[in-house]
Amino acid sequence: MKRTTDWIATNLGWYYVLTMTLVIGFVLWVAFSKEGDVRIGPDHSRPQYKLVTWVAMLFAAGVGIDMLFYSVTGPVVQYLHPPSGEGGTAQAMQDAVIWTMFHYGIAGWAMYALLGMAMGYFAYRWDMPLSIRAALYPLFGKRVRGPLGDGISIIALVGTVFGVATSMGIGVVLLSVGFSLLFALEQGLSLQIALVMGAVALTIAATTSGVDRGIRWIAELNLWSAVAMMLYILITGQTAFLLNALVSNIGQFLVTFPARTFQTFAYEPDGAGWMAGWTLFFWAFWLAWGPFVGVFLARISRGRTLREFVLAAVTAPVLCDFIIVSLFGNSALFQVLQGNTEFATLAMDSPERGWYALLQMFPGSMFLIGLATLSGLLFYLTSANSGAMVMSNFSATIPDPSHDGPSWLRIFWALLTAMLTVAMLVAGGVTTMEYATLIFALPVTVIAYLVMASFYKVLRMERAEREGRVLRRPSMAASGGHVPERSWKQRLEHLRAYPSLHQVTQFLNRTVGPALDEVVAEFRHQGYHVTRESLVNTSGIGEPLLRVSMDRFRDFHYHVAIVEAPVPVFSGRMTREIDVYYRLEVFTQTGSGGYDLMGLTKQQVIDDVLNRYEAHLAFLVFSSENATASVLTPRQS
Question: Which domains, and CATH codes, for the chain?
Answer without folding.
Answer: 2-457 (1.20.1740), 475-632 (no CATH)
